[in-house]
Design a protein that fits this description.
The chain is α/β, with parallel strands linked by helices. The chain is 35% helix and 16% strand.
């Protein structure tokens, strides 16, 4: 049998020295090797190839394609039973004037919670998602505005979820959290996501109230109050060139507050990028690789950042924490598969990235229930096998084709790829998580 190096091998170096890695997302194996082995594997000149064949680094190309197809079918089958996230935009109004808000142009839409809207929403999901594991995420705009029209709708949504045993996640700017704790008692709250963009001065400059007042102290008080009630908090920081240099200070703040030692506390980093109508100033924006490269440099100088947040670097963090390679990813876009978005106007959208965007609704649940099945099918069909460039890409099982909405926003084509710099990001991550252990 004529064995060849697998086209899906990821090979890279850990720091400056003789320690290299090889990772294969199809076979699910990862190993540390030396520089000579790495070169011999690339050149297919290994003196003892059997061990590499057993790990899937050397393969019969025809058998590898059969394994690829089998892995793809297994992925699709698992996705059919995956938990569905149902997002509901309670309002597009917000009390914040964030400097990077991509929904700013939506704010003129009149908010309405007709008495039948919530009932129609639950009738729709009861029919369309019967038997599927699911949870509800409330967001906006700002879902915890004190306005009666908003609060009445949120209460109805929470009660309806509780009646059906559906857990609820809340995405809020956090300003009114302390005043809204009673609402969180109406249903089982899976988590509350709150954004904090840095220490006080940085956060307040980026996420002030519409009147210009700071919001940092109120958000922090809200986080403390939610954690005290035993509700998980997912703290998000939206990162660009303006605030990444202050991430270490935010990390130290969270550590001093005791948040990072609380098992109910977790974090995520969102990259500030151009979407729809936002970002008059593009110079502040990072590319994905630039952001994670600068983040790696910050971690090298300020290792306490890792106590606050451990970035994924694609599969590198998973490998470091689980000593295993994640399952192959054939589709990074959940739109119309495991994610659907709704708003208080009765409209249905494919995902959170385009909910509320004029012209992108794919149906309604009120005043009538209807779906544009052609549009739905277009979203459902998008994966790495629907895009010619992804079919031939050796990195597709790590990238998954990226975000459909970002791709369409950039190219006008939903089935264009949103390519990720996989090799570079994995290499950054391997050096972040393994450099101390394997420094030579």
């Amino acid at each position: 049998m004529n064995l060849q190096p697998s086209r899906y091998n990821l090979i890279g170096q850990i720091r400056d020295g003789d320690t290299w890695y090889v990772i294969n997302p199809l076979s699910g194996h990862a190993d540390l090797i030396d520089a000579d082995e790495a070169q011999a594997l690339r050149d297919n000149t290994l003196a003892e190839p059997d061990a590499y064949a057993e790990r899937g680094y050397l393969v019969d190309p025809e058998q590898e394609q059969r394994d690829y197809r089998k892995a793809y079918l297994n992925f699709v089958e698992r996705r059919e039973t995956d938990e569905v996230q149902l997002l509901f935009a309670v309002t597009y109004a917000c009390n914040f004037a964030c400097t990077y808000c991509f929904q700013e142009s939506y704010a003129e839409q009149v908010n309405r919670f007709d008495g039948d809207v919530v009932g129609a929403f639950f009738q729709h999901i009861d029919a369309q998602f019967a038997g599927r594991s699911k949870y509800l995420t409330l967001f906006g705009g700002e879902p915890l505005l004190p306005a009666a029209s908003v609060r009445v709708g949120v209460e109805a949504l929470l009660r309806g979820a509780a009646e059906r045993g559906i857990e609820v996640a809340m995405v809020t700017n956090g300003y009114n959290l302390v005043k809204s704790l009673d609402l969180l008692e109406l249903a089982t709250i899976r988590e509350v996501q709150v954004t904090l963009d840095g220490p006080r001065e940085i956060h307040d400059a980026r996420r002030p109230l519409r009147g210009g007042q700071g919001t940092f102290d109120d958000v922090v008080a809200g986080i403390d109050a939610v954690l005290a009630k035993g509700i998980p908090v997912n703290l998000r920081a939206v990162i660009d060139r303006d605030n990444l240099p202050h991430l270490a200070e935010l990390s130290r703040f969270a550590i001093a507050k005791g948040w990072t030692s609380n098992p109910l506390f977790k974090t995520q980093l969102g990259r500030n990028y151009e979407l729809h109508t936002c970002q008059a100033s593009r110079s502040r924006l990072y590319s994905r690789l630039e952001m994670y490269s600068d983040l790696a440099d910050e971690i090298d100088v300020h290792p306490e950042i890792l106590e606050f947040h451990k970035p994924s670097y694609h599969l590198a963090r998973f490998l470091a924490e689980s000593n295993a390679v994640p399952e192959p990813l054939f589709d990074a876009c959940p739109g119309c598969k495991t994610e659907w978005a709704f708003d208080a106007h009765g409209r249905i959208f494919p995902c959170t990235a385009n909910v509320g965007k004029p012209g992108e609704a794919i149906g309604t649940y009120w005043p009538e229930s209807k779906l544009d099945l052609d549009q739905v099918g277009h979203w459902e069909d998008r994966d790495v096998l629907s895009m010619s460039s992804c079919k031939e890409c050796a990195l597709a099982m790590v990238c998954g084709g990226g975000c459909a909405e970002v791709a369409r926003n950039a190219t006008g084509d939903l089935h264009a790829p949103d390519c990720r710099p996989v090799n570079e990001l994995v290499n950054l991550g391997m050096n972040v998580y393994f450099k101390e252990q394997y420094h030579v």
